[in-house]
Write a structure and sequence with these properties.
It contains no helices and eleven strands. It has about 120 residues and is mainly β. A hairpin with a 5-residue loop joins strand 4 and strand 5.
């Protein structure tokens, strides 16, 4: 099962981007789906995850600016990123699993399915 990301790119400070993630090969509804990001030389950090039941969690640095949503029928999820800042510049990875939790785990080690990543660059 693979996850496919789209929507990365370059914007100026204050701009918006929408990231999308899909899994065309999966015939089972995903449990938790969402995003982690990685800065050069550092580990991955939580951006946002959303449970099968629609409950989201967010990393502290993106609360109030990013919003995650999902379509269970299409097995897709989107991350709307608003008011982007240069410190949001990173590689963004879609992650998921088939565990039906009410609230997703915030640790990247809990997820075994990953996309290849999409770059987001915010210039000042």
């Amino acid at each position: 099962v693979t996850l496919k990301e789209s929507g990365g790119g370059s914007v100026q400070t204050g701009g918006s981007l929408t990231l999308s993630c899909s899994s065309p090969e999966s015939d089972q509804t995903w449990g938790c789906m969402g995003w982690f990001r990685q800065f050069p030389g550092k580990g991955r950090e939580l951006v946002a995850m959303i449970s099968r039941y629609g409950t989201p969690i967010y990393g502290d640095s993106v609360k109030g600016r990013f919003a995650i949503s999902r379509d269970n029928d299409k097995n897709t999820q989107q991350l709307q990123m608003n008011n982007l800042k240069p410190e949001d510049t990173a590689m963004y990875f879609c992650a998921g699993d088939y565990t039906y939790l009410k609230v997703c785990y915030p640790e990247d080690s809990e997820y075994i399915y990953w996309g290849q990543g999409t770059q987001v660059t915010v210039s000042s």
